[in-house]
Amino acid sequence: MEEGWKEVYMTAHEYKAEMAREILENNGIKAIVMNQQDTAYKSFGEYLVYVADADYTRSVKLLKNLKN
To answer: Where does the DUF2007 domain lie (predicted)?
Structure first.
């Protein structure tokens, strides 16, 4: 990922990554989902959600309940 962005959430499930992105964007935080799954073996890899460095702390707080 480019400089200035931090990984705030990681999951093996696309729907959870999209839920995280939606929560963040509904709170005014731009978020990007990156698909790191292997194209040949869908059970390998994760979906990563990134936010700007400046939004990281707030993002962690917003997603705290989603991680449980």
So the answer is: 5-66
Cβ neighbors of 37 (< 8 A, separation 6 or more) are: 44, 45, 46, 47
Q: 53 lies in a domain?
A: yes
Q: In the chain, how many domains are there?
A: 1
**CA 38 → CA 33, 42, 60, distances in Å?**
15, 6, 27
pLDDT in tens, 9-43: 999 999 999 999 999 999 999 999 998 765 666 56
| Closest-CA residue to 27 (of 53, 58, 64) | 58
- Residue found under tokens 């990007």: 32
For residue 3, give both structure tokens. 């400089």
pTM: 0.84
Domain extent, residue 43, equals 5-63
